[in-house]
Design brief:
alpha/beta
């Protein structure tokens, strides 16, 4: 018998049940903090928030399932990528999985150089850290950046890499043809928005990066990947 039933789910009835899924149900459950603001936004209706529908106004998007704190296994050893919210939607052209990252002034975590340095001390002298990061870069079609010590991407936020990889892996798992990485910001955050734009520059988008407008598609591993930032401040 399996020790962990990782892909078994049941509906949440009350907000407090969502709260229990948080890494820190006390510290993270405060007005103005990203976790609680995310719940307020998504739990107010059985439909998608209008701001999300407006990203693809012609696609007739409908929510099928929402999975808070959804984990996606990354290459190598270590923890999964725990996504704030995974929304499986249907559109007139098929499924569209959405990986949501909520922010309220928090950073996207360490930059790649810091992450690699810290993990190199504890993960088989850097061997497994390299396996994980190179695997994520391969998922994202960024093989040209995959050699340690990752100087070309060292100043970019590691979290944005594994969140984006989560979207591609989930799309492939459910046989969708496209996916969306969505940042929902509940506090003015010019620094994180700048970090987000820096990350997207990796993919050489020709269009200007602007809020509330999806950027893409970028064809990666057979998936049309989109990115979007919505500011709720």
């Amino acid at each position: 018998m399996k020790e962990v039933l990782s892909n078994y789910y049941q509906p949440l009835i009350f907000h407090c049940e969502w709260r229990k899924l948080l890494a820190d149900p006390i510290e993270h459950w405060k007005d103005g903090y990203s976790a609680k603001e995310l719940v307020k936004l998504w739990a107010q209706s059985d439909e998608l928030p209008e701001t999300v529908k407006d990203l693809f106004p012609d696609d007739e998007m409908k929510p099928i399932f929402l999975f808070p704190e959804y984990s996606v296994q990354m290459p190598g050893k270590g923890k999964d990528s725990f996504n704030d919210l995974y929304v499986l939607t249907s559109t007139k052209n098929g499924y569209l999985p959405i990986i949501v990252e909520a922010k309220a002034g928090e950073e996207f975590g360490p930059i790649v150089s810091e992450w690699y340095r810290d993990k190199g001390k504890s993960w088989d002298k850097g061997k497994n850290a390299s396996i994980r990061l190179s695997g994520i870069l391969s998922i994202l079609g960024l093989e040209g950046y995959d050699q340690p010590p990752y100087l070309r991407i060292g100043n970019l936020r590691y979290q944005l890499f594994h969140r984006s990889a989560s979207a591609i892996l989930e799309a492939k798992r459910i046989k969708a043809t496209k996916a969306l990485v969505l940042i929902q910001s509940f506090r003015q955050d010019a620094k994180s928005y700048s970090d987000f734009k820096q990350f997207l520059n990796l993919f050489s988008f020709n269009d200007p990066i602007s809020q509330k407008v999806p950027l893409g598609p970028l064809l990666i591993n057979g998936i049309e990947l989109y990115f979007a930032w919505i500011d709720y401040e």
